[in-house]
Design brief:
It is a single chain. The chain has about 475 residues and is mostly helical. The protein has 2 domains: about 10-235 and about 330-465, no CATH class; about 240-310, no CATH class. It is built from 25 helices and no strands. The chain has helices at about 15-30, 35-40, 45-55, 65-75, 80-100, 110-120, 125-130, 135-150, 150-170, 175-200, 210-230, 240-250, 250-260, 280-285, 290, 295-310, 315-330, 340-350, 355-360, 365, 370-400, 405-425, 430-435, 440-450, 455-465. The radius of gyration is 23 Å and the shape is globular. The protein starts with 16 loop residues before the first helix and ends with a helix.
Length: about 475
């Protein structure tokens, strides 16, 4: 792993601002490889709502105003390529900084090769090049890790940039608020544990900048919602999504069967025709959700039913939430609903970004259905191997007491669990929720291979982690 004396700048690590910047730019084409191959940024069914909200000022209750404002600020009205370009820069930046901190001897060419491997072996490029906030989940995790464990080595300027990147990423989706809060709490608990066991002379992570990132992200969420509605709130759809999950798990049907008509729920009239899944409840054409005026009409009763069912069936809630979170943890196929969507999105493109409509319609995604079977045979295998490797590395680190070596793998594992709990238990499991961050275990394992082997070097790096 020693650098060649005359190997050129690509054989050196990104150890200066200029080399860091060049490295980030070198990573961007690979992070956008799928979008470039597609001929246009990838879209999801939610893309139109984000565009309408950000460029048209139309509040869409079930979509993050933060990401919609991000679209507007990154020039989506002119070109959606600018938006995915910024997403690539943000992702490339946190990848580069993590590599600098975890594997300081890793040369630029090796980091580029690693990014190419992640592009083909994981779903990374499918999310960075997509007009939805899914790629930001991993950005939240890596940015918060860096400012918690490596703030001093990073320096003030990089920490400032990382806090800004983390705050923007946190604000792009309500699930990221929960993830960021959970990770900050994890850092606090870890710090208390380290100080209690080892004393104040031992290096310990600090949660101050992580908490600041969360606070700024929360402020962006509140201000974005206020800008669109003149009302201050975090989300007006959260209870409805939780309701959808407990409906899918049979809790709602049990409550209605045992309490109607005395309970007086509007849903009593539909208790024998309830959809079987949350997706059909929320988006199905014949769903009672539509008849009851969607989010606005069901929000209050959803909260009431959640509270009543928690009181009556607490163990059922715990069991089904655990099952949903566990299912989500192991659901990470790439390509969830990445398919032709023009029948939904064409009106929004025609109204808000008409100059981009032709390019959108002629992209590969609108012409054919992608064959994700072969892709997922690779992605799922890489994901499972990486999860197993992550577990083995954590066990090895605990047994050998190599805490600095397993800090990033442990943080990634907690982020994976947190994401699965938030998305699986508070919404309902979908492959894309976990797929969007499944490149992190692979990334962490490769960096662990390149970490300095000398205990003195490692200890010296750890000593500089204290903020």
């Amino acid at each position: 792993m020693r650098l060649r004396a005359n190997g050129g700048w690509v054989s050196a690590p990104p150890d200066s601002p200029l080399r860091e910047s060049i490295t980030v730019l070198l990573l961007c084409p690979f992070l956008l490889a799928v979008a470039l191959w597609n001929g246009f940024p990838l879209t999801f069914y939610d893309t139109g709502a984000y565009i309408a909200q950000g460029l048209g000022g139309l509040f869409v209750v079930e979509r993050s105003a933060g990401y919609s404002i991000f679209l507007w600020m990154t020039g989506a009205a002119f070109s959606l390529w600018l938006t995915v370009g910024v997403q690539a820069l943000m992702t490339g930046f946190v990848i580069t900084q993590t590599a600098r901190m975890e594997a300081p001897q890793l040369p630029i060419w090796a980091l580029v090769v690693l990014c190419i491997g992640l592009t083909f072996g994981t779903g990374l490029a499918w999310y960075v090049g997509q007009i939805v906030p899914d790629c930001m989940t991993a950005v939240v995790a890596l940015a918060l890790y860096l400012v918690s464990f490596h703030a001093v080595r990073l320096g003030r300027a990089r920490c400032f940039l990382l806090v800004a990147v983390a705050a923007i990423a946190v604000a792009t989706h309500s699930s990221h608020l929960g993830l960021a809060a959970g990770l900050a709490i994890f850092v606090v608990l870890l710090r208390w544990t380290v100080l209690a066991l080892k004393g104040r002379k031992t290096a310990a992570p600090r949660a101050g900048l992580a908490a600041l990132s969360f606070a700024i992200g929360l402020g962006i969420v509140l201000s974005s919602n206020f800008a669109l509605t003149r009302d201050v709130f975090i989300s007006k759809a959260g209870s409805v999504f939780v309701f959808g999950r407990i409906l899918q798990d049979g809790i709602v049907k049990r409550l209605l069967d045992e309490t109607c008509p005395a309970s007086g729920y509007a849903l009593c009239a539909y208790k024998d025709t309830l959809p079987k899944t949350a997706d059909i409840w929320l988006w199905g054409q014949g769903s009672p959700f539509l008849a009851l005026d969607r989010f606005k009409g069901t929000r209050d009763e959803s909260r009431e039913i959640i509270a009543d069912s928690l009181r009556l069936y607490p163990l059922m809630h715990i069991r089904t939430a655990f099952h949903s979170a566990l299912s989500q943890f192991f659901m990470f196929k790439t390509g969830d609903q990445i398919e032709p969507q023009q029948w939904v999105l064409h009106p929004d493109f025609a109204r808000y970004v008409p100059d981009q409509l032709d390019a959108y319609m002629t992209a590969r995604q609108q012409q054919v259905r992608f064959a994700f079977g072969p892709i997922n045979r690779v992605h799922e295998a890489v994901g499972m191997i990486s999860l197993c490797g992550l577990g083995l590395l954590l066990v090895w680190g605990v047994v050998r007491r190599r805490w600095a070596r397993v800090a990033l793998p442990a943080f990634v594992f907690v982020a994976l669990m947190g994401n699965a709990i938030i998305c699986g238990a508070l919404s309902n499991p979908h492959d894309r929720y976990q797929s969007r961050i499944m490149w992190l275990p692979t990334f962490a394992l490769v960096l662990a291979r390149w970490r300095p082997r000398n205990d003195a070097v490692e200890a010296g790096g750890a000593a500089r982690m204290v903020l």
